[in-house]
Q: What sequence folds into this?
């Protein structure tokens, strides 16, 4: 076994995966014995736990609201499954969030609110980084509109304070993420959505489908006084 | 730069973190230097030509030193000398080290001078056959083989000349079983460290707590093992404390230094002719748990041992120089 093969095995084992052992071809009997011993070693179990603590704290720092909602739904095991099955491909938080988002999207147990929330956290990260990049990178092309089934700030507040989650409503709430906004996001009521749909079919020069229509600018938006994200969340995203 | 080139005796220090900033300023009289990990000032940014485009939002990203985050550390850097302790170079990765860390250190070196820099002996990342990377998330041990030595020596030599400051390698804690039972292991940890110290120009950052963890977890005598180490290459010592979990003493830097480590420190100090610094390492999250009083007590205990060490090992003339350096720094601070 080359040093590289040993290291690939150790990284996989540390994540809790033994697939790397099965991929090791041409092992000598002593190498085979050593790898098997390693897989049974109490020290490997400790290594895996240390790795999990590190990775969980990383996922919590990256997507604190989503993690909190998964916990409320009793779905902690999805976080563990994510850590074991999805290696860290880069140390970039945006890539971790993206990977987590894709993972959750593929899980039937994950509800619409959780999926939307992870989209929100990923979107805020990108918007914050674009805003920080200033003139270096164009922010024109980035804008997201997310549909929630409850009033988003009430959901965020409940998750951050540990209070009961707001009930889902018949009404849809729309949240826009845009790096040009001072707080990076704002909420709209469902009339924005109606207008937005209208824009697709009947677009006027001053109304883009991916941005707030002119006649629904700040004054008409509901809750234009929505505060910035609580600093704890904002810091994690910047 | 070689560590043998007369390094100044710094004294007792603590690892820097933003959470420790006020504490360090309050107790600057007993803190002779700070140990800084530039990794903690790193930020992820979107840019035109970044090296990461993995996220589906389509933007390129790179890591950069955040100068705002750095400001507080620079303030203390005006008052006290700085040494650098890297966290994420992954010096032992067979598929290539983490060059992002070196970019961060280059940027840091433009803003802050440091007496030396150091990194852990181990690896954290591997490249897969498809070119993607896997990160372990913690420092994993090297195999103590000729192949590992051949990989590490040229990298260490590169680091020795890259900055106008010496480079030290640090021994780490590991929980994986002894590799000596395999055909692949040629040396034990001490022999391997001696090989590195002989074949390169680096010095040793001897983490006594890490070493004590390994001795306890794998049942060997730390005194007998340390007696075989090239002690004249030790430039800096780390002390720390942690917790026991499932029968393993963990390297978490969350507690006070265990008595057994204080004993090791007292025993080894007279044997270290070139020691320049003793650092008490503490995890930032441990501050509210450990409390300021206990942290200060740890630093004071280091200081007492350091003063005894100075009395034993250096001439009165050198002690005066060391004292003058400090007066000079305090004068600048005032
Ligand atoms: Fe250390």
A:
């Amino acid at each position: 076994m080359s040093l590289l093969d040993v290291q690939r095995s150790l990284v996989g084992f540390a994540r809790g995966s033994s697939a790397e052992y099965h991929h090791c071809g041409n092992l000598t009997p002593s190498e085979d014995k050593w790898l098997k011993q390693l897989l049974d070693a109490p020290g490997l179990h400790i290594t895996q736990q240390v790795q999990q603590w590190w990775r969980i704290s990383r996922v919590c720092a990256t997507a604190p609201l989503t993690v909190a909602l998964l916990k409320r739904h009793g779905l902690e095991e999805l976080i563990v499954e994510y850590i074991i099955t999805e290696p860290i491909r880069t140390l970039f938080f945006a890539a971790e969030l993206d990977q987590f988002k894709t993972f959750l999207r593929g899980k039937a147990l994950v509800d619409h609110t959780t999926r939307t929330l992870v989209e929100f956290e990923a979107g805020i990260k990108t918007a914050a980084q674009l805003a920080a990049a200033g003139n270096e990178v164009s922010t024109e092309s980035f804008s997201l509109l997310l549909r929630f089934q409850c009033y988003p700030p009430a959901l965020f507040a409940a998750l951050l304070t540990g209070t009961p989650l707001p009930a889902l409503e018949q009404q849809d709430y729309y949240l826009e993420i845009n790096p040009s906004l001072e707080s990076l996001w704002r909420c709209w009521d469902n009339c924005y959505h109606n207008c937005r749909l209208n824009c697709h079919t009947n677009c006027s020069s001053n109304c883009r489908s991916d941005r707030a229509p002119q006649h629904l600018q700040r004054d008409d938006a509901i809750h234009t006084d929505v505060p910035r994200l609580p600093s704890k969340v904002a810091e994690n995203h910047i | 730069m070689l560590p043998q080139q007369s390094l100044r005796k710094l004294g007792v220090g603590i690892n820097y973190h933003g959470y420790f900033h006020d504490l360090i300023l309050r107790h600057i009289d007993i803190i002779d230097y700070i140990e800084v990990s530039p990794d903690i000032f790193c930020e992820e940014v979107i840019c035109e030509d970044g090296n990461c485009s993995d996220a589906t939002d389509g933007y390129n990203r790179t890591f950069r030193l955040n100068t705002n985050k750095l400001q507080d550390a620079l303030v203390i850097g005006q008052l006290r000398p700085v040494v650098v302790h890297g966290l994420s170079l992954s010096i032992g990765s067979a598929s290539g080290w983490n060059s992002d860390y070196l970019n961060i250190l280059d940027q840091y070196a433009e803003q802050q001078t440091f007496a030396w820099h150091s990194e852990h002996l181990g690896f954290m990342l591997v490249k897969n056959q498809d070119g993607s990377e896997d990160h372990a998330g913690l420092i994993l041990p090297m195999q103590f083989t000729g192949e590992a030595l051949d990989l590490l020596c040229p990298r260490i030599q590169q680091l020795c000349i890259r900055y106008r400051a010496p480079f030290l390698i640090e021994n780490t804690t590991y929980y994986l079983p002894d590799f000596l039972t395999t055909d692949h292991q040629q040396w034990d940890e001490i022999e391997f460290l001696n090989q590195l110290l002989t074949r390169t120009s680096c010095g040793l950052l001897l983490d006594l707590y890490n070493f004590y963890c390994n001795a306890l977890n794998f049942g060997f005598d730390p005194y007998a093992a340390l007696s075989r180490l090239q002690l004249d290459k030790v430039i800096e010592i780390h002390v720390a404390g942690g917790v026991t979990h499932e029968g393993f003493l963990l390297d978490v830097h969350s507690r006070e230094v265990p008595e057994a480590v204080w004993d090791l420190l007292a025993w080894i100090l007279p044997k270290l002719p070139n020691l320049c610094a003793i650092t008490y390492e503490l995890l930032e999250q441990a501050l509210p748990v450990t409390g300021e009083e206990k942290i200060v007590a740890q630093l004071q205990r280091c200081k007492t041992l350091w003063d005894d060490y100075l009395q034993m090992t250096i001439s009165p003339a050198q002690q005066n120089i060391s004292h003058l350096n400090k007066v000079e720094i305090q004068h600048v601070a005032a």
